[in-house]
Fold these 2 entries.
Entry 1:
Amino acid sequence: MKAIDYSDIARDNERRVKKLTEKQKEEYTKILSYLLNNHPDDLNIYVSVVLSNLEEGKSIPSDYRKYIQRIKRNGLIKEEQKKIRDRDYEKFNVSNIWEVFTTFIVLLFFKNWLTENYLIHYSADILIAILASYVAIRSFLIKRRIVLKYNFEKRYLYLDIFALIVCVIIKLVVKTNFDITFLILVMSYLITQRQMKPMFANVV
Protein backbone atom coordinates (compact mmCIF):
# COMPACT_ATOMS: atom_id res chain seq x y z
CA MET A 1 0.00 0.00 0.00
CA LYS A 2 1.25 3.47 -0.87
CA ALA A 3 2.34 5.81 1.90
CA ILE A 4 -0.29 8.28 3.08
CA ASP A 5 0.28 11.80 1.85
CA TYR A 6 -0.22 14.20 4.75
CA SER A 7 0.35 17.36 2.73
CA ASP A 8 -3.34 18.25 3.11
CA ILE A 9 -3.01 18.83 6.88
CA ALA A 10 -0.67 21.79 6.33
CA ARG A 11 -3.64 24.18 6.29
CA ASP A 12 -5.04 22.67 9.49
CA ASN A 13 -1.63 23.07 11.10
CA GLU A 14 -1.54 26.74 10.13
CA ARG A 15 -4.91 27.31 11.78
CA ARG A 16 -3.73 25.56 14.93
CA VAL A 17 -0.60 27.72 15.09
CA LYS A 18 -2.73 30.87 15.19
CA LYS A 19 -4.38 29.66 18.41
CA LEU A 20 -1.08 29.26 20.27
CA THR A 21 0.18 31.76 22.82
CA GLU A 22 3.09 34.01 21.88
CA LYS A 23 5.51 31.90 23.91
CA GLN A 24 4.28 28.72 22.24
CA LYS A 25 4.62 30.33 18.83
CA GLU A 26 8.26 31.10 19.59
CA GLU A 27 8.89 27.47 20.53
CA TYR A 28 7.04 26.32 17.44
CA THR A 29 9.03 28.62 15.12
CA LYS A 30 12.35 27.29 16.44
CA ILE A 31 11.50 23.61 16.07
CA LEU A 32 9.87 24.25 12.68
CA SER A 33 13.24 25.48 11.39
CA TYR A 34 14.85 22.28 12.67
CA LEU A 35 12.19 20.08 11.04
CA LEU A 36 12.48 21.89 7.73
CA ASN A 37 16.21 21.15 7.65
CA ASN A 38 16.15 17.60 9.01
CA HIS A 39 12.73 16.05 8.28
CA PRO A 40 11.31 17.80 5.21
CA ASP A 41 9.59 14.66 3.89
CA ASP A 42 7.61 14.06 7.10
CA LEU A 43 7.28 17.72 8.01
CA ASN A 44 3.48 17.95 8.28
CA ILE A 45 3.00 14.94 10.52
CA TYR A 46 5.84 15.99 12.85
CA VAL A 47 4.44 19.52 13.01
CA SER A 48 1.05 18.05 13.91
CA VAL A 49 2.62 16.11 16.81
CA VAL A 50 4.47 19.22 18.01
CA LEU A 51 1.26 21.25 17.91
CA SER A 52 -0.60 18.56 19.86
CA ASN A 53 2.09 18.72 22.55
CA LEU A 54 1.92 22.50 22.71
CA GLU A 55 -1.88 22.45 22.85
CA GLU A 56 -1.64 20.06 25.81
CA GLY A 57 0.54 22.62 27.61
CA LYS A 58 3.79 20.72 27.18
CA SER A 59 7.03 22.57 26.45
CA ILE A 60 9.41 21.58 23.66
CA PRO A 61 12.88 20.42 24.87
CA SER A 62 15.86 22.36 23.54
CA ASP A 63 17.49 19.15 22.27
CA TYR A 64 15.34 18.71 19.16
CA ARG A 65 17.11 15.58 17.96
CA LYS A 66 16.35 13.69 21.17
CA TYR A 67 12.83 15.11 21.15
CA ILE A 68 12.14 13.72 17.67
CA GLN A 69 13.67 10.37 18.66
CA ARG A 70 11.36 10.27 21.68
CA ILE A 71 8.39 11.00 19.45
CA LYS A 72 9.31 8.00 17.29
CA ARG A 73 10.07 5.74 20.25
CA ASN A 74 6.86 6.51 22.16
CA GLY A 75 4.60 5.94 19.16
CA LEU A 76 3.39 9.54 19.10
CA ILE A 77 3.46 9.57 15.31
CA LYS A 78 1.00 6.69 15.16
CA GLU A 79 -1.25 8.35 17.74
CA GLU A 80 -1.27 11.53 15.68
CA GLN A 81 -2.04 9.58 12.52
CA LYS A 82 -5.06 8.04 14.27
CA LYS A 83 -6.28 11.50 15.29
CA ILE A 84 -5.94 12.71 11.69
CA ARG A 85 -7.67 9.56 10.41
CA ASP A 86 -10.58 10.07 12.82
CA ARG A 87 -10.95 13.71 11.74
CA ASP A 88 -10.93 12.66 8.09
CA TYR A 89 -13.51 9.96 8.77
CA GLU A 90 -15.77 12.56 10.37
CA LYS A 91 -15.24 14.92 7.41
CA PHE A 92 -16.06 12.07 5.03
CA ASN A 93 -19.30 11.26 6.89
CA VAL A 94 -20.45 14.88 7.04
CA SER A 95 -19.60 15.44 3.36
CA ASN A 96 -21.49 12.28 2.43
CA ILE A 97 -24.62 13.48 4.23
CA TRP A 98 -24.45 16.97 2.72
CA GLU A 99 -23.92 15.50 -0.73
CA VAL A 100 -27.12 13.44 -0.47
CA PHE A 101 -29.35 16.32 0.58
CA THR A 102 -27.91 18.98 -1.71
CA THR A 103 -27.89 16.66 -4.73
CA PHE A 104 -31.55 15.90 -4.09
CA ILE A 105 -32.33 19.63 -3.99
CA VAL A 106 -30.60 20.08 -7.36
CA LEU A 107 -32.52 17.13 -8.82
CA LEU A 108 -35.76 18.57 -7.46
CA PHE A 109 -35.06 21.87 -9.22
CA PHE A 110 -34.19 19.95 -12.40
CA LYS A 111 -37.57 18.21 -12.30
CA ASN A 112 -39.40 21.47 -11.59
CA TRP A 113 -37.53 23.12 -14.46
CA LEU A 114 -38.69 20.37 -16.82
CA THR A 115 -42.30 20.72 -15.72
CA GLU A 116 -42.11 24.50 -15.17
CA ASN A 117 -43.74 23.96 -11.80
CA TYR A 118 -41.52 25.82 -9.34
CA LEU A 119 -41.72 25.71 -5.55
CA ILE A 120 -41.42 29.50 -5.18
CA HIS A 121 -40.38 31.17 -8.43
CA TYR A 122 -37.78 30.37 -11.08
CA SER A 123 -35.38 33.08 -9.91
CA ALA A 124 -35.60 31.97 -6.26
CA ASP A 125 -35.49 28.26 -7.02
CA ILE A 126 -32.44 28.53 -9.26
CA LEU A 127 -30.51 30.46 -6.60
CA ILE A 128 -31.21 27.67 -4.11
CA ALA A 129 -30.19 25.09 -6.74
CA ILE A 130 -26.93 26.92 -7.48
CA LEU A 131 -26.05 27.04 -3.77
CA ALA A 132 -26.94 23.37 -3.40
CA SER A 133 -24.81 22.52 -6.45
CA TYR A 134 -21.82 24.29 -4.91
CA VAL A 135 -22.21 22.40 -1.63
CA ALA A 136 -22.72 19.07 -3.43
CA ILE A 137 -19.63 19.52 -5.61
CA ARG A 138 -17.53 20.69 -2.65
CA SER A 139 -18.69 17.70 -0.60
CA PHE A 140 -17.80 15.32 -3.42
CA LEU A 141 -14.34 16.88 -3.77
CA ILE A 142 -13.70 16.52 -0.03
CA LYS A 143 -14.64 12.84 -0.26
CA ARG A 144 -12.45 12.43 -3.33
CA ARG A 145 -9.46 14.03 -1.57
CA ILE A 146 -9.83 11.69 1.39
CA VAL A 147 -10.24 8.61 -0.79
CA LEU A 148 -7.11 9.49 -2.77
CA LYS A 149 -5.20 10.40 0.40
CA TYR A 150 -5.67 6.95 1.92
CA ASN A 151 -5.45 5.12 -1.40
CA PHE A 152 -8.95 3.70 -1.06
CA GLU A 153 -10.74 2.17 -4.02
CA LYS A 154 -12.26 4.78 -6.31
CA ARG A 155 -15.37 2.70 -6.94
CA TYR A 156 -17.13 4.55 -4.11
CA LEU A 157 -16.67 7.78 -6.01
CA TYR A 158 -17.95 6.11 -9.16
CA LEU A 159 -20.98 4.91 -7.19
CA ASP A 160 -21.88 8.55 -6.48
CA ILE A 161 -21.61 9.42 -10.16
CA PHE A 162 -23.61 6.34 -11.19
CA ALA A 163 -26.35 7.15 -8.68
CA LEU A 164 -26.54 10.73 -9.99
CA ILE A 165 -26.83 9.55 -13.60
CA VAL A 166 -29.60 7.09 -12.67
CA CYS A 167 -31.46 9.85 -10.82
CA VAL A 168 -31.24 12.23 -13.79
CA ILE A 169 -32.56 9.52 -16.13
CA ILE A 170 -35.45 8.84 -13.76
CA LYS A 171 -36.27 12.56 -13.66
CA LEU A 172 -36.32 12.66 -17.45
CA VAL A 173 -38.29 9.46 -18.02
CA VAL A 174 -40.65 8.97 -15.09
CA LYS A 175 -43.69 11.24 -15.25
CA THR A 176 -45.41 10.21 -12.00
CA ASN A 177 -45.24 12.20 -8.78
CA PHE A 178 -43.69 9.22 -6.97
CA ASP A 179 -39.99 10.06 -6.58
CA ILE A 180 -37.43 7.35 -5.76
CA THR A 181 -34.35 9.46 -6.46
CA PHE A 182 -33.88 10.34 -2.79
CA LEU A 183 -34.05 6.63 -1.93
CA ILE A 184 -31.33 5.92 -4.51
CA LEU A 185 -29.10 8.63 -3.07
CA VAL A 186 -29.64 7.31 0.46
CA MET A 187 -28.84 3.76 -0.66
CA SER A 188 -25.62 5.00 -2.26
CA TYR A 189 -24.80 6.78 1.00
CA LEU A 190 -25.46 3.70 3.15
CA ILE A 191 -23.42 1.40 0.90
CA THR A 192 -20.48 3.81 0.96
CA GLN A 193 -20.65 4.27 4.73
CA ARG A 194 -20.82 0.54 5.40
CA GLN A 195 -17.85 -0.22 3.15
CA MET A 196 -15.67 2.69 4.19
CA LYS A 197 -15.89 2.28 7.97
CA PRO A 198 -13.67 -0.87 8.17
CA MET A 199 -11.31 0.61 5.58
CA PHE A 200 -10.72 3.65 7.79
CA ALA A 201 -10.26 1.35 10.81
CA ASN A 202 -7.42 -0.42 9.00
CA VAL A 203 -5.58 2.75 7.99
CA VAL A 204 -3.33 2.91 11.07
Entry 2:
Amino acid sequence: MNTPELQVNEMVVLRPVTRRILPEVMEAYTEDPESAKAALPWLTDGTEAHRQITDLMIDLEMHKSGETVHFWAIHSKENNSFVGMIGLGDELQLAASAYNLGYWVRQNWRRKGIALSCVDAIFTWLKNRTTQALIEITVHPHNESGLATCRSICERWGGLAISDYVAIEIGGRTIPHILHLVQLDRGDIE
Protein backbone atom coordinates (compact mmCIF):
# COMPACT_ATOMS: atom_id res chain seq x y z
CA MET A 1 0.00 0.00 0.00
CA ASN A 2 1.30 3.44 -0.89
CA THR A 3 2.28 5.78 1.90
CA PRO A 4 -0.51 8.37 1.79
CA GLU A 5 -0.57 12.09 2.47
CA LEU A 6 -2.08 12.57 5.95
CA GLN A 7 -3.79 15.66 7.29
CA VAL A 8 -2.58 16.32 10.85
CA ASN A 9 -3.98 19.60 12.16
CA GLU A 10 -4.25 23.28 11.23
CA MET A 11 -0.44 23.66 11.42
CA VAL A 12 1.07 20.72 9.53
CA VAL A 13 0.47 18.03 6.92
CA LEU A 14 2.37 14.77 6.32
CA ARG A 15 3.58 13.98 2.78
CA PRO A 16 5.46 10.85 1.69
CA VAL A 17 9.21 11.49 1.69
CA THR A 18 10.80 12.17 -1.70
CA ARG A 19 14.34 13.13 -2.59
CA ARG A 20 13.06 16.54 -3.76
CA ILE A 21 13.12 17.70 -0.12
CA LEU A 22 16.84 16.95 0.22
CA PRO A 23 17.89 20.65 0.23
CA GLU A 24 15.42 21.39 3.05
CA VAL A 25 16.54 18.33 5.01
CA MET A 26 20.19 19.36 4.64
CA GLU A 27 19.35 22.89 5.77
CA ALA A 28 17.63 21.46 8.86
CA TYR A 29 20.61 19.17 9.50
CA THR A 30 23.02 22.12 9.26
CA GLU A 31 20.89 24.12 11.76
CA ASP A 32 21.11 21.45 14.42
CA PRO A 33 23.30 18.43 13.60
CA GLU A 34 23.15 17.08 17.16
CA SER A 35 19.37 16.62 17.15
CA ALA A 36 19.56 15.09 13.66
CA LYS A 37 22.11 12.62 15.01
CA ALA A 38 19.82 11.84 17.96
CA ALA A 39 17.08 10.92 15.46
CA LEU A 40 19.49 9.25 13.02
CA PRO A 41 22.29 7.99 15.29
CA TRP A 42 24.20 6.33 12.45
CA LEU A 43 24.96 9.73 10.85
CA THR A 44 28.63 10.63 10.80
CA ASP A 45 30.01 14.14 11.11
CA GLY A 46 31.01 16.39 8.26
CA THR A 47 30.60 15.93 4.54
CA GLU A 48 29.83 12.22 4.89
CA ALA A 49 26.50 13.15 6.50
CA HIS A 50 25.34 14.75 3.23
CA ARG A 51 25.90 11.50 1.33
CA GLN A 52 24.22 9.47 4.08
CA ILE A 53 21.16 11.75 4.13
CA THR A 54 20.98 11.66 0.32
CA ASP A 55 21.06 7.85 0.39
CA LEU A 56 18.36 7.85 3.09
CA MET A 57 16.05 10.09 1.04
CA ILE A 58 16.44 7.88 -2.05
CA ASP A 59 15.87 4.72 0.01
CA LEU A 60 12.76 6.13 1.71
CA GLU A 61 11.32 7.30 -1.60
CA MET A 62 11.76 3.79 -3.04
CA HIS A 63 9.88 2.30 -0.06
CA LYS A 64 6.84 4.58 -0.25
CA SER A 65 4.81 2.03 -2.21
CA GLY A 66 5.72 -0.92 0.03
CA GLU A 67 4.41 -2.31 3.30
CA THR A 68 7.49 -2.41 5.53
CA VAL A 69 8.49 1.27 5.66
CA HIS A 70 6.34 4.43 5.68
CA PHE A 71 8.05 7.81 6.08
CA TRP A 72 6.62 11.30 5.81
CA ALA A 73 7.99 14.81 5.57
CA ILE A 74 6.21 17.17 7.94
CA HIS A 75 5.30 20.40 6.14
CA SER A 76 3.84 23.65 7.42
CA LYS A 77 0.37 24.36 6.04
CA GLU A 78 1.08 28.09 6.22
CA ASN A 79 4.06 28.25 3.84
CA ASN A 80 4.83 24.61 2.90
CA SER A 81 8.21 24.79 4.69
CA PHE A 82 9.93 21.61 5.90
CA VAL A 83 9.20 21.01 9.61
CA GLY A 84 10.71 17.55 10.08
CA MET A 85 10.33 13.86 9.31
CA ILE A 86 8.46 11.01 10.93
CA GLY A 87 8.02 7.41 9.98
CA LEU A 88 7.49 3.75 10.56
CA GLY A 89 10.63 1.73 9.91
CA ASP A 90 11.65 -1.90 9.92
CA GLU A 91 14.71 -1.92 12.20
CA LEU A 92 13.12 -3.83 15.05
CA GLN A 93 14.20 -5.06 18.47
CA LEU A 94 11.39 -7.62 18.90
CA ALA A 95 10.28 -10.28 16.43
CA ALA A 96 6.61 -9.54 17.21
CA SER A 97 6.86 -5.86 16.26
CA ALA A 98 5.47 -4.51 13.00
CA TYR A 99 7.30 -1.16 12.91
CA ASN A 100 9.59 1.16 14.80
CA LEU A 101 8.59 4.81 15.05
CA GLY A 102 11.13 7.56 14.50
CA TYR A 103 10.78 11.31 14.23
CA TRP A 104 12.80 14.49 13.94
CA VAL A 105 11.35 18.00 14.28
CA ARG A 106 13.26 21.16 13.39
CA GLN A 107 14.42 23.30 16.28
CA ASN A 108 12.05 26.25 15.70
CA TRP A 109 9.02 23.89 15.56
CA ARG A 110 9.69 22.01 18.79
CA ARG A 111 7.54 22.29 21.92
CA LYS A 112 4.39 22.79 19.85
CA GLY A 113 3.06 19.24 20.01
CA ILE A 114 3.98 18.55 16.38
CA ALA A 115 5.44 15.06 16.94
CA LEU A 116 2.50 13.92 19.07
CA SER A 117 -0.06 15.28 16.57
CA CYS A 118 1.76 13.52 13.72
CA VAL A 119 1.86 10.26 15.70
CA ASP A 120 -1.89 10.53 16.25
CA ALA A 121 -2.47 10.90 12.49
CA ILE A 122 -0.14 7.99 11.64
CA PHE A 123 -1.48 5.65 14.31
CA THR A 124 -5.08 6.42 13.29
CA TRP A 125 -4.21 5.66 9.65
CA LEU A 126 -2.41 2.45 10.65
CA LYS A 127 -5.28 1.25 12.86
CA ASN A 128 -7.71 1.70 9.98
CA ARG A 129 -5.71 -0.54 7.67
CA THR A 130 -4.59 -3.40 9.91
CA THR A 131 -6.11 -5.55 12.64
CA GLN A 132 -3.17 -5.08 14.94
CA ALA A 133 0.38 -3.80 14.99
CA LEU A 134 3.01 -3.60 17.72
CA ILE A 135 5.02 -0.36 17.38
CA GLU A 136 8.44 0.16 18.95
CA ILE A 137 9.93 3.50 19.94
CA THR A 138 13.54 3.49 21.15
CA VAL A 139 15.01 6.53 22.91
CA HIS A 140 18.42 7.18 24.39
CA PRO A 141 18.02 7.55 28.18
CA HIS A 142 19.61 11.04 28.14
CA ASN A 143 17.24 12.37 25.46
CA GLU A 144 14.85 14.15 27.84
CA SER A 145 12.60 15.65 25.17
CA GLY A 146 12.41 12.31 23.34
CA LEU A 147 11.48 10.54 26.58
CA ALA A 148 8.79 13.16 27.32
CA THR A 149 7.30 12.68 23.86
CA CYS A 150 7.34 8.89 24.32
CA ARG A 151 5.56 9.22 27.65
CA SER A 152 2.88 11.34 25.97
CA ILE A 153 2.52 8.84 23.12
CA CYS A 154 2.25 5.95 25.59
CA GLU A 155 -0.33 7.79 27.71
CA ARG A 156 -2.40 8.63 24.63
CA TRP A 157 -2.16 5.21 22.98
CA GLY A 158 -1.89 2.83 25.93
CA GLY A 159 1.78 2.04 25.50
CA LEU A 160 4.47 1.22 28.04
CA ALA A 161 8.19 1.49 28.60
CA ILE A 162 10.14 -1.74 29.06
CA SER A 163 12.07 -1.64 32.35
CA ASP A 164 15.37 -3.00 30.96
CA TYR A 165 17.54 -1.19 28.46
CA VAL A 166 17.85 -2.59 24.96
CA ALA A 167 21.27 -2.60 23.33
CA ILE A 168 21.38 -0.87 19.96
CA GLU A 169 24.46 -1.13 17.78
CA ILE A 170 25.45 2.30 16.42
CA GLY A 171 28.72 2.92 14.63
CA GLY A 172 30.34 -0.20 16.06
CA ARG A 173 29.32 0.66 19.63
CA THR A 174 26.53 -0.77 21.76
CA ILE A 175 24.37 2.04 23.14
CA PRO A 176 21.61 1.39 25.72
CA HIS A 177 18.15 2.70 24.82
CA ILE A 178 14.75 2.64 26.47
CA LEU A 179 12.20 0.67 24.48
CA HIS A 180 8.58 1.81 24.46
CA LEU A 181 5.85 -0.39 22.97
CA VAL A 182 2.42 0.58 21.67
CA GLN A 183 -0.04 -2.11 20.62
CA LEU A 184 -2.52 -0.82 18.05
CA ASP A 185 -5.68 -2.88 17.62
CA ARG A 186 -8.53 -2.04 15.30
CA GLY A 187 -11.27 -0.61 17.46
CA ASP A 188 -8.95 0.96 20.06
CA ILE A 189 -10.46 4.08 21.54
CA GLU A 190 -8.57 7.27 20.71
